[in-house]
Amino acid sequence: MSGEAGTDVPLCDIAGENRALAGPILAALQRVLTGGQVILGPEVAAFEQEVAAFCGVRHAVACSSGTDALVLALHALGIGPGDEVIVPTFTFFATAGAVCRVGATPVFADIEPHTYGLDPADVVRRLSPRSRAIIPVHLFGQACDMTAIRAIAEEHTLYIIEDVAQAFGSRYQERTCGSLGHAGTLSFYPTKNLGAAGDAGMVLTDQDGLARRMRALRVHGSEVRYYHREVGYNMRLDALQAAILRVKLPQVPRWLEQRRQAADRYRRLITAAGLEQFLCPPVVLPQRYHTFNQYVVRVPASYRDALAQFLKSQQIGVEIYYPLCLHQQECFRRLGYRQGDFPQAEQAAATVLALPMFPGITEQQQQRVIDACAAFVARLPQPARRAA
User: Fold this and answer.
1) Average pLDDT over residues 193-198
2) Which whole-number Å values give the CA distances from 276 to 260, 303, 322, in the listed order?
3) Are 169 and 193 spatial neighbours (Cβ–Cβ below 8 Å)?
4) What CA–CA distance (Å, rounded) separates 326 from 162?
5) Is residue 41 classed exposed, middle or buried when 0-12, 13-18 and 19+ CB atoms within 10 A define those classes?
6) Does the pTM of the predicted model rise above 0.90?
7) Counting Cβ atoms within 10 Å, is residue 284 exposed (0-12), middle (13-18) or buried (19+)?
8) Beta-carbon count within 10 A of 327 CB
9) What percent of the chain stands above pLDDT 70?
10) H helix or E strand, kind and range, residue 34
């Protein structure tokens, strides 16, 4: 991709990532197919060990998706009917959906506007005698305020399950996200910092007993084949996915630095174009290693959707993560929340826009994105060119 006028700029470039590693990926697939162990087995075990070492934890339990990783962690921690789990209302649906799948109730909390992570003060306001866990989501690649969240959890005897789906390799105070709670859940969906060729997930933990229970739960509650202590799930990871991910894992540090460099270029290009009051770039807080799984800007709510459609018409990939908060979803109306209950999250849902971001995106491609944004803004009346 050259970045010249008329050239597509995708939101992410999965095909390019796979193409660059085609030889090693095909060799890994051939190794698995020749060996014949295509579900769990030595390939998955090796991948678990490698990710555990990368993230600085004792155990990594591979499973079939990031959503299943959340369910697995919640179930293994004994969370179920009658329990409440505090989750951000501004996140992907799976965070709260997994809570419902184990029979517990999601309790929504507002976010901090700069990190999009849970607002610790609002978490405290949402606590009740039924609270059992907190799920901080390191959204878009930047860590939540884990010092405050860990203090709340310790004071109130709550579990912490980190949702690290968008933050593989991100760090908080030099500790890798996913190693800061009782469990950390990963998604290897193809668009993630480490992406498979389909669905795949994992749970990280330092607790031996928790890891053992999750390993059993992912295979119908069985530690010994055909003998079941409890009812579990079919959440096994395919060895083919593990083999692909093992090829990609050593590339992750380089890819993350490329994402961070691209984020710096976006900020420079936005400033050079005089757009920082309309296209408000993300804020990176101290003691965070932001990996920019998405590059999310803020646009005035009145123009966000129109800008998104304009960029798409210019063959520039954009996405809105997320146009609706979870408390506004039809399936959660029964919980009784109202418009205005979570002002920061609702403002984010009205103003966020993700621009193209992937390892290897060129400055020319990014320039084309910002030039297209500038062309859109040039059509607006002067008073409209203000930040959200």
Assistant:
1) 97
2) 18, 15, 21
3) yes
4) 18
5) middle
6) yes
7) middle
8) 23
9) 97
10) helix 22-35
From the list 222, 247, 204, the residue with the least C-alpha distance to 61 is 204
Show Cβ contacts of residue 139 under 8 Å, excluding neighbours closer than 6 positions. Answer: 88, 90, 91, 115, 116, 117, 166, 167
What residue type is assigned to position 268 of the chain?
R
Q: Is the pLDDT of residue 300 over 50?
A: yes
> C-alpha distances in angstroms, 307 versus 129, 193, 237, 280, 298?
45, 26, 40, 14, 11
Answer for the pair 170, 142: CB distance below 8 angstroms, yes or no: yes
Q: What is residue 4's predicted lDDT score, i.e. its pLDDT?
A: 39
Q: What count of other Cβ atoms lies within 10 Å of the Cβ of residue 331? A: 11
Q: Are 322 and 180 in contact (CB under 8 A)?
A: no
pLDDT in tens, 218-240: 999 988 888 899 999 999 999 99
Give me the domains of the chain, ranges plus CATH numbers: 16-250 (3.40.640.10), 252-384 (3.90.1150.10)
In DSSP terms, 61 is beta-bridged to 203
Return the pLDDT at 381.
81
The span from the CA of 289 to the CA of 20, in Å, is: 26
